[in-house]
Amino acid sequence: MKKIKIKVNGKVKTVLNNSKLSDLLKNLNIPIKKVAIELNQEIIDKKRTSNIKLKKDDKIEIVHFIGGG
Amino acid sequence: MKKDKLIIAKKKFDSRLIVGTGKYKSMTECANAIKFSGAEIVTVAVRRVNISNKNKPLLMDYIDPKKITYLPNTAGCFTSKDALRTLRLAREIGGWKLVKLEVLGDKTNLFPDMIETLKTTEVLAKEGFRVMVYCNDDPLMSKRLENSGADAIMPLAAPIGSGLGILNKINIQIIRKQTKLPVIIDAGLGQASDATIAMELGCDGVLVNTAIAKAKKPFEMALAFKNAVVAGRQSYNSGRITKTLMGNPSSPTEGII
Q1: Domain architecture of chain B: domains with CATH
Q2: A24-34 per-position pLDDT tens digit
């Protein structure tokens, strides 16, 4: 299968073309309930990550809460 | 004494001290300082998950969002666009609607950019957020924020992290007098007595981060701020005496031998 490059939190990652966003999150060990996810600057419904297929040059941001004032 | 609660966006809180969760040596230290402070609301920042270190501790594992109200902030945002993006993501993490907006205008003094802040407040209020707004100690701007749908006015005492205490008491009093919204002093407090002064000016609460986190003994300082806020509120509610120029003896002048 063809491999593509995407960016996750600013870092380049190589994944299989058309692989699911949910698989990427699983591989990265992301605690879904404690994060929010953006795909190309659009917020993703966390319940629908298995419906989203990754494409070349996709930019994903995964954020959570940290200490701050 | 009747129950004197802090009400923000229709939610009631017993504690009038809000604390930040930044700048602590560890999450354990942060969680303990919160306990000592008695705070029921804590500010949190939205940042990228560290995807290369999967075992990095998570804030939510130390501070239970079911017990303590998380107040997501927009620290580090210099434009309306960035602030909106940050808070929309914050809401997505777990349905948080109560947020703290701060749009900074200058990297050295960290003063807020009030034009961007005002614009952002309007958008957030329309999107259903309950917005607590970090702002200058400017009564006119505070009024405009109120008219734009803010849920709390959070004027700075002094620049963020400066520890200078309240620089403009008169403006803070004017802001308090003219608004129906809660006024929370945000940023610039250095020691517990600064919080007492804020409360004695009639403020509804204070937000403290650096003064506790960077004190030599953060837990003791957290406790000091807790007591200072309570003392200041009690003092304010008790109605202080009028200031006079000359002395007035405390003991009766009749019957002196």
Answers
A1: 6-238 (3.20.20.70)
A2: 999 988 989 89
ipTM: 0.93
**Distance between A4 CA and the closest CA of chain B, angstroms:** 19
Question: Which string of b and e fits A2-32 if b means at least 16 CB within 10 Å?
Answer: eebebebbeeebebeeebbbbebbeebebee
Residue partners of B184: CB distance under 8 A and separation at least 6: B18, B132, B152, B153, B154, B203, B204, B205, B206, B207
Q: Is the dihedral of CA B209, B189, B205, B153 positive or negative?
A: negative
Identify the closest residue of chain A to B212 by CA–CA distance: A69
Is the CB of residue A36 less than 8 Å away from at least one CB of chain B? yes
Domain edges within chain A: 3-63
CATH code for the structural domain at A3-63: 3.10.20.30
The model's pTM is: 0.91
Please indicate whether residue B119 is annotated as part of the active site. no
